[in-house]
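Entry 14. Structure prediction run on the chain below.
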Amino acid sequence: MSLAGNPSLIKSIRSLFRKKEQAPSSASVQPEGRQRALALPPEEFRRIDAAFERWVQEKGYRMPDVTIKETASRMGCKGAQLHRYCIQKMGVDFRTWRVRQRIEDAKVLLLQEPDTSASHIGRMVGIQDRSNFLRQFERLTGLSPEQWRQNELASR
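Output returned:
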């Protein structure tokens, strides 16, 4: 059946396109409003930022099995505030940032300690489960920790 021979089908399709063009895209409306809703007041942001920086310097992100709520409590804020801070400052949620930070730490350790096993390095950076460490490392780098280390050491 061709479209030319079915005027009501053509009319329906045109109607769908018109509705699509008239309706505001949720992608264009929601993020701006959502970003505004997530933004912390400046004084609260500065307070959390200072606590967060101390926590990072102390490598608090390496502590295994600690929730955002527990981490926020140590920083003197609530979990929702820490979540909003991470979204506002880093553009990702706390959990995603922490995984990325742990993998960046692991990359440094893989090069500094070439005789240390990848699974031990995973535990050093706070990822206790070997398969979880391997999966996260490969997801972020495209290589296993050992492959990544070999490539980096060979390129030096």
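The longest helix spans residues 94-112.
Filed with the rest of this week's runs.
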